Each structure stands twice: as structure tokens, then as C-alpha cells.
Amino acid sequence: MLAIPLFVPLGLYLERVNSSAQSAIELRSMTRQIARAFVTSPTEAEAAVRAREVLSVYRSQILPARGDKSLLNLSISCESQPCLTPNSKVTIVVTEMPSGQSSSATQIVDSWRNSG
User: Fold this and answer.
1) Which of 14, 41, 75, 81 could be joined to 93 by an S-S link, Cβ 3.0–4.6 Å?
2) pTM
3) Could you report the per-residue pLDDT of 48-77, keeping only the tens digit for each?
4) Helices marked H in the chain — which ranges?
5) What's the CA gap between 40 and 33, in Å, rounded?
């Protein structure tokens, strides 16, 4: 009976750790999806739109489901210009504010595509 009150803080701590880990997993997965959507786009203009659309879905569906009101910053950097040059690397970085948690994903543009 005396030990039961000690388990409440432990349970709360474990819940917080689980929530933080789940958030990091979702952020990493979403960043990979944005990178994949970007490099598989048929044109440069469509690539940016597709990246923002994936981010928008995450903002409107995933964040509210877990009660999170974080702001997300998207950064896209390309190894070559134009971005969709065959065999070039595209790196996507998403930062969640105010936590500062960030995730990055790098994808290589297909070597058989036409530059767009």
C-alpha cells in the first residue's frame, strides 16, 4: 500500500517519455515522406507544392490528434541546380517549434529521370 503512491510519478514519467518518442518517430517519418514526394515530382514547381502538401496534412491531421500546437518550419536544400538533376541529393529538414526538435531526410533523385 505504501508503494502505490510512488508508482504514480513513475507512470507519468513513462507516459511523457513515450509521448516524446512517438512525436520524434512521427516527425522523422513525415520528413522522409516529404523528401520522397519532392524527388518523385515531375517538375521543380510541383516538387515544392507536393512537399508543402505533405507538411499540411501532418499539421492538420497528426498534430491535432495528439493535442500539439507546434509550428513546423520546412527547409529544402539541393546538391545541384536545378534541384531535380539526376543523381543529385535533396535534403529536407523539418523543425518543430518551440521544442526545437528537428528531423532531416536526404533522398537521391532518380538517375533515369529528365531534369525538370
Assistant:
1) 75
2) 0.83
3) 999 999 999 988 888 887 777 788 999 999
4) 4-39, 44-57, 63-65
5) 11
Cα–Cα distances (Å) from 45 to 41, 48, 49, 80, 104, in that order, read 9, 6, 7, 16, 21
Listed by start position, the domains of the chain span 4-108
Asked whether residue 116 carries a pLDDT value surpassing 50, the answer given is: no
**Using omega within 30 degrees of 0 as the cis cutoff, is the peptide bond preceding 98 cis?**
yes
Strand order through the sheet with 101-108: 71-78, 89-97, 101-108
Amino acid (1-letter code) at residue 30: M
**Cell output for 64:** 491535432
Q: Give the contacts of 111 (CB within 8 A, at least 6 positions apart).
A: 86, 87
